Amino acid sequence: MYEWILPSLREILAPSQSSMAKCSSAKAEQQWRVSLAATEHLLLNNLAPTTTNITQGLVLTAPAPLFSQPQLTQSLQTITFTAKPFNPLALMPFHFSSTMAKSINTETMSAVENAGRLTDYGHLNYEITPEESILPLLPADPLGAEQFCLVFTEKFRLVLVLSEHSSGKKEFLFSFEPEVVQQAWQALGARVILTNPELFAELDTLVEKYPLSPPNYQHIIQFSQFLLQELPEPETDKLTHTIPISSPPHLHVSPLAKPSSRPDVELLQAFAHEVRTPLATIRTMTRLLLKRRDLPTIVINRLEVIDHECTEQIDRMELLFKAAELETCAAVKSANTQLTPMSLAQVLQQSIPRWQQAANRRNLTLDVALPQQLPTVVSNPAMLDRVLTGLMENFTRSLPPGSSIQVQVIPAGDQLKLQLSPQLDCHDTTRTVTLPIRKSLGQLLMFQPETGTISLNIAATKHLFQAIGGKLIVRQSPQYGEVLTIFLPLEVSNKQKVKLT
Prior knowledge:
The protein is of the alpha+beta class. Helices cover 43% and strands 19% of the residues.
């Protein structure tokens, strides 16, 4: 249910975003700033040189105009939404002739000065241009507390939003998906109908001039590159540069001045981000194609395979990113604050078919034994499925073809135990299993030369389970190989005995 009669932009974008760890308000504001700078670079890189007065794009912003580059102000039509009271431009049309703009500008400034309210709007630019205007938001509208930017061009559509939760924490969201941007515009258009209904038709016509089509992947890659360029220099690097090469013996150097001791972790974060971004673009385009009704069955089947592979690798990259994040900051405590009672049955219902597919691809058999009723556990709903699936993926890669995997869920006091144990294809019980060879890659990864698999090491995987309220135990068995046991805490009201089938 929406917070108001119309959805805010955060409520529109949130369902389409990947589940990521919550960040601080300061970090969200930094993401907003660097994303706006990247958007400005992207527009400058893709708009034609300004040789005529032809408008090349439309920008809807709040609470003030965001771009100051002359080329952009001349090429883009800007409309600003604001909830500020006593806005002298609030009820004015959003498109003026040059003569009307000068006339209205003079009258408006006089009226503001006479009313003694010039200081209320000293931060706004009252030099109205033919391609810039301001529209009002109702005082009760939660959109008035959001900062946003909708960009419409011939080549792409983009929406960026900085919003504030009821808890007071800020969150930054953005999307290139044409349908998401269209929904954002519809939410704004509905507000124009409420405040200036006579202007909606003309504004809607302006928006419809720009195609509702997926962006070229090169534009998203450019945006990612500009985003990385705008990231601030790490404080550790700044401090390192300011410290003399040789310090006097009596000079004490603060521990904060030490260079990062985990370059491999930072590299993993950057790598996971770089891989995930183009895959997300490919998946978006694939899903847009799947919505067409004129595609042959064989094309649909192959697109579904592409979508599945992209989703699998995106989840894998997000898992690597999360593991790196846990190593570089005190994220375990913040993750534990997001623990909540959840249905394990629902998670397993979604996960087991994927586990079955992973086993089938490697010629393995999956045998699952579940209780008649699965109790409610306490964990992180956004992470549990991903962590379990990642663990199963790594587990299946370590077994030889023809093996069987037994999955058991059994009660263990005030916890629920989920156990993965291999059943090798061998009738000789005296046979000793040769465990796979694994080589360490830095602090988080391990490499299996036999299969070419790179995955999180045991320590990093245990850290992930700890962050979602669980516990992972790995036991080596000479007859069966590795046996993995996961413990998840039960909800207080569900710590009753679970009956097995």
